[in-house]
Design brief:
Elements (H helix, E strand, L loop, with lengths): L2 H18 L3 H7 L4 H29 L2 H16 L8 H30 L6 H26 L3 H19 L15 H5 L2 H16 L1 H13 L4 H29 L2 H21 L4 H9 L1 H19 L5 H31 L1 H22 L7
Helix pairs in contact: 1-6, 1-7, 2-3, 3-5, 3-15, 4-5, 4-7, 5-15, 6-11, 9-15, 9-16, 10-15, 10-16, 11-13, 11-14, 12-13, 12-14, 12-16, 14-15, 15-16
Length: about 375
């Protein structure tokens, strides 16, 4: 198993996420956009995830050669992003964001399938590889925060460009891997998707990412309004991911062996609900914000690890690529887009506290659905 090559891709991919999600809204604000426009533009990053992973997942499952498609998507994302330096206005930026995020969002689900192909029966080792994505996120979220403090929001674009280049280089280092589950037949993928447990799973993960809307779009702007410097904000982002790293490195493999993935999914959703309440109601208390960021270990870390394992068990053989794509599309794509888009209107009309309170309610609803209707499957 090419541990370091697989890890390098996660490092740079999530490093690009660390430059985009915390700071792209700040960059847009510096260019004169209001809350509704920022929420709408940030929603593009999520909306393209609805379409792109499914298109590329279908191609990968039918044509094979997942890594070729990952490399092509990584190159196209880098080239598309270069156009950001030549556009202005809402629609020009929206068009560029649509193109680069379409290709950027296409690569990760297929790379996840490649990683599980390499892992084979050692799927519980996934967090040890995925942790490097969290480390990459920390490096950029802290580093870019300090860079922007010193040089201004324009530095956000250069940070994204450098990390996109890193994603491309890392993709060139990973060899193609044949799908070890290719002979397993589950019949039509629609047969899998009609199962009540699978439907409930997708509803739950949709609601989880929808609840992240105010956080992804406005967390940096929110804290800046309360007087926190960009360096402090960057460290708060980094603290959350440091908690995730700690979970992945030392605890997640043990939790996956000891507890059901369903139980871990429910607990992650419930703790996410608590996190949004803390952020929404206690923004002036730095220690409360720090505790809320530590809960990122649950709202992303244990949530994603348990969800990715459930997908790996629900979708087998020739459906593996599309299963990963659907997870990305429904949760980070549709859920993230709906939450981010709605949060722009909520934020402008009723303020941050209500936006985060509603986000908490959505996460708790997801916890109930996951607890009541999903179920575990035995590992293959």
């Amino acid at each position: 198993m090419p541990y370091w090559r697989l890890s390098a891709f996660y490092f740079f991919y999530f490093a690009s996420l660390g430059a985009l999600v915390p700071y792209w809204g700040l960059y847009l604000e510096a260019r004169g956009f209001d809350a509704v426009a920022i929420g709408s533009l940030m929603a593009i990053l999520m909306a393209t995830k609805v379409v792109a992973p499914n298109v590329w997942g279908w191609l990968a499952d039918h044509l094979g050669h997942r890594m070729r498609l990952v490399r092509l998507a990584s190159l196209a994302a880098l080239v598309s992003f270069l156009a950001i330096y030549g556009v202005s206005g809402f629609w020009g930026i929206a068009l560029v964001m649509t193109f680069y995020s379409f290709f950027w969002n296409a690569s990760l689900p297929q790379f996840e399938a490649v990683t599980f192909d390499y892992l084979g029966p050692r799927a519980d080792r996934y967090p040890r590889i995925r942790v490097w994505g969290s480390i990459g996120f920390i490096v950029t979220v802290v580093g870019v925060g300090q860079w922007v403090d010193r040089a201004g929001p324009e530095m956000v674009t250069w940070s994204v460009l450098l990390t996109f280049a890193g994603v491309l280089v890392a993709s060139l280092l990973v060899k193609e891997r044949s799908d070890g589950d290719g002979k397993e037949d589950q019949g039509s993928i629609l047969k899998v998707l009609r199962r009540p447990a699978v439907i409930a799973f997708f509803v739950a993960v949709f609601l989880m990412q929808m609840s992240h809307g105010p956080y992804y779009a406005f967390y940096t702007i929110y804290l800046q309004e309360y007087g926190y410097s960009k360096t402090v904000i960057g460290f708060l982002w980094g603290l959350g991911v440091l908690a995730e790293v700690t979970l992945f490195l030392f605890y997640m493999h043990r939790l996956l062996r000891r507890y059901s993935t369903r139980l871990l999914l429910v607990a992650s959703l419930a703790l996410a609900g608590l996190r949004w309440l803390l952020i929404g109601w206690f923004p002036e208390e730095l220690w409360v914000l720090a505790v809320a960021q530590l809960l990122h270990a649950a709202s992303f870390g244990s949530f994603h690890a348990s969800a990715i394992h459930m997908i790996h068990r629900y979708f087998r053989g020739s459906h593996q690529g599309r299963g990963q794509a659907l997870y990305a599309s429904v949760s980070f794509g549709a859920g993230g887009a709906a939450g981010t888009f709605a949060s722009g209107f909520l934020w402008q009309q009723w303020g941050a506290t209500l936006a985060y309170t509603l986000a908490s309610s959505i996460a708790l609803l997801g916890a109930f659905i996951a607890w009541r209707f999903t179920r575990d499957e035995q590992p293959r």
